[in-house]
Amino acid sequence: MAFLRLGSKSEAFRREGQAWHCTSGLPSDVTFEIGEMSFYLHKFPLISRSGLLAKLIKDSSKDDVSVSELQLNDIPGGAKAFELVAKFCYGVKIEITPLNIVSLRCASEYLEMTDEYGERNLIAQTESFLNEVFGNWTDTIKALETCEEVLPQAEELHIVSRCINSLAMKACTDTKLFNWPVSENGHEDTTDTEVWNGICTGSKTQPMTDDWWYEDVSFLSLPLYKRLIQAVEAGGMRPDNVAGAVVFYAKKYIPLMNRQASFKDATSQTNKSGSTISTPSEADQRALLEEIMELLPNQKGVTETRFLLRLLRSAMMLQASPSCRENLERRVGLQLDQAALDDLLIPNMGYSVETLYDIDCFQRILDHFMSIDQASSAPSPCIMEENQLMEGSTSLTSLTRVANLVDSYLSEVAPDVNYKFPKFQSLAATIPDFARPLTDGIYRAIDIYLKAHPWLTDSEREQICRLMNCQKLSLEACTHAAQNERLPLRVIVQVLFFEQLRLRTSISGLFFVSDNLDNSRSTTLHGGNRNTNTSNGRGSSIDDMRERVAELEKECNSMKQEFKKVVKTKKKWNVFCGRKSECDLNSVNPSKLQPRHVNERKNQKNGGSR
């Protein structure tokens, strides 16, 4: 840390309680009151250095009092700064450091300590040392932190802006080009290098990463930090570096950003020694979160989607403003294809909680993504042939990722019995059909939803099954769907039909290939003996294909048998349900329907006749 020593005399002041006395031996003729501290000094050393003090002392001398009493409560830096000023006026040794330079510079300006009242006066001395401080990263940060104590005067003298500009310039400079002697955490590397026979044997300085300055500037207050971030953006820093610094600052001062921390213990955290460190209140965290939102770059992909989702969750817990939450949802929707399922499962924070997770929030995020995707893409792809899309939609890959994400999300929230059918249908229908190469994911979500909601009507079951394309189900999904009793009969018929159609297409394709191979083989035989080993290999491949065709035919027959069983079961169940009452009446003995005394008389007559 840089320092400047002024003065040559030994200590000439002593402190007694809340008072400072000069030990020069002469009686004091002026007293300064600064807060609770009193200074008993002499007029001449002060008049020769300060224009303001000379004016005040001159005005007080008109009262014909032996000891003048003056109030200096407005002096920047208070009693500590005035103590250094008084010692400078008396020529006593003082040490100026980055921790007191700002308050001393403001105090000297307030007291009008220009060169008019003495050569190399305090204003010139402090200004010269400030320029030296600005050349050092660590010293500039310390000086900027002390500006909080005298902020109005520091702003007026442009000390704050000069500190910020100095830090921004150093943060934006490529350290690889200049090889600055700054360690990874931003402090100077003062370790001496050992030299033996002209060869440096000391350890080399480790190359710095782009985040070397994050921790150092994180100790600044939010207003100063905000101005620094704006300065580095204006200096041309890459948006990802700016976002990294803002993320570091947010995680440090918003405890709710830590996923493991619960909402109840978010008001305090414990350091390694076990002592409790107070953290900002919820109101301060809410204000900080809303400011952080404004500092994050707007470019897509610059800020991690996981961080944005955690910030959104914290905003809901802290009850941030609706505009802040809407802005976060829009940012997440901009890069939803980069999100993970676990981060999207945001608990419902409302008082009238219907579902476990905030599904409405995810619906809004998805709507933002779809609106941006439709605006940035060409018109919806036109189908040229089956399973082929016209080229032109550059966002099809990201849309497919989001489709898989939506299907996985629906599978997670489907077991919730409070999840209403219209909301499930609306969320699933947001994704277009062409974005799902396979519909196994949406089928799994539908199956889970039907299992958790057995009270759905047949019409609702039909509607929910229209969300999936049976032609895009895999073989495993088709096998499961064909035996799924929760699906409507029409859907099962469709699954079996398309699976049989797929098998026929595969079989015809194999026969076509085998015919081509037979033709090529016959051509080869008529042309002469060219390669016997090759012909044997082709013959074996044809045999393998025929075996595969036989296996496919067996599978097709077995599926037909299963389909017949399912249809018979459905019909028997419908007949049973429709004619249950009629069957019950036919199975009852008519005599049992008569009154009891009539049956007893019949029994007596039958006994007598016997």
Radius of gyration: 43 Å
Total beta strands: 13
The coarse silhouette is elongated
Percent range of helical residues: 55-70%
- What can be said about the biggest beta sheet? 5 strands, mixed
Q: Which strand order does the major sheet show?
A: 2-3-5-4-6
| Tally of helical runs | 26
Q: Quote the distance from N terminus to C terminus.
A: 129 Å
How much is the average pLDDT?
78
Strand content: 5-15%
State the secondary-structure class: alpha+beta
Report the uncertain regions.
181-193, 195-201, 260-277, 378-394, 528-535, 573-610
Layout of strands and helices, then pairs:
Elements: E1 4-6, E2 13-16, E3 19-22, E4 30-34, E5 37-41, H1 43-47, H2 51-60, E6 68-71, H3 78-90, E7 94-96, H4 101-110, H5 122-134, H6 137-146, H7 151-156, H8 159-172, H9 175-178, E8 195-196, E9 199-200, H10 214-217, H11 222-234, H12 239-253, E10 268-270, E11 276-278, H13 282-295, H14 305-317, H15 322-334, H16 341-344, H17 359-376, E12 383-385, E13 388-389, H18 396-413, H19 421-429, H20 440-452, H21 458-465, H22 475-482, H23 489-527, H24 532-578, H25 580-587, H26 596-609
Parallel strand pairs: 3-5, 4-6
Antiparallel strand pairs: 1-7, 2-3, 4-5, 8-9, 10-11, 12-13
